[in-house]
């Protein structure tokens, strides 16, 4: 895109329906209406962010390089005051053109995530077990 249209956030906010869905990611204004049905996380996830800047949510999920490359496909312009980063999208679009499929799994590769998930399961289990042991021993002692 040599000549990109420039939009304000208030202009983008006017496109927040299922039939006309726009959002902003990294300063890129995206028209994602046709992508709603294809989104692996469901169209509701995208519709919640329609008409808004969804950069933080997009990055928090940890999308694949192929998903990041798809941003170019749906771009209709840029947000006023932003200059899009072309270098990171080149690698993603090359990867997409090789025919790689976007994975439905978008979990970050983070070892601390596994530890946190384990602790979220284990700590309540220990607390519940301790409670039942205490209750049992209280009844047996009386």
TrEMBL record:
Keywords: Heme, Iron, Membrane, Metal-binding, Transmembrane, Transmembrane helix
One Gene Ontology term of the molecular function aspect: metal ion binding
InterPro entries: Cyt_B5-like_heme/steroid-bd (IPR001199), Cyt_B5-like_heme/steroid_sf (IPR036400), Cyt_B5_heme-BS (IPR018506), Cytochrome_b5 (IPR050668)
Segments of this protein annotated with the region Disordered: 84-105
Membrane spanning stretches: 117-137
Cytochrome b5 heme-binding domain boundaries: 4-80
Keyword Iron: yes
A cellular component term, taken from the record's GO annotations: membrane
Subcellular location: Membrane
Record carries keyword Cytoplasm: no
Major location category of this protein: membrane
Compositional bias (Basic and acidic residues): 84-99
PANTHER family reported in the protein's UniProt record: CYTOCHROME B5, CYTOCHROME B5 A
UniProt family annotation: Belongs to the cytochrome b5 family.
Name of the protein: Cytochrome b5 heme-binding domain-containing protein
Organism lineage: Eukaryota, Viridiplantae, Streptophyta, Embryophyta, Tracheophyta
């Amino acid at each position: 895109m040599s000549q990109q249209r420039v939009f304000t956030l208030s202009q983008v906010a006017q496109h927040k329906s299922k039939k006309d869905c726009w959002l902003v990611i990294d300063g890129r204004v995206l028209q994602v209406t046709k992508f709603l049905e294809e989104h692996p996380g469901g169209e509701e996830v995208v519709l919640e962010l329609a008409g808004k800047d969804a950069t933080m949510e997009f990055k928090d999920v940890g999308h694949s390089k192929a998903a990041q490359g798809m941003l170019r496909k749906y771009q209709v312009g840029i947000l006023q005051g932003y200059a899009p980063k072309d270098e990171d999208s080149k690698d993603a679009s090359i990867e997409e053109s090789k025919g790689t499929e976007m994975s439905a799994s978008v979990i970050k590769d983070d070892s601390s995530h596994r530890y946190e998930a384990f602790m979220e399961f284990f700590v309540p289990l220990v607390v519940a077990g301790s409670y039942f042991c205490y209750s049992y021993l209280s009844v047996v002692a009386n």
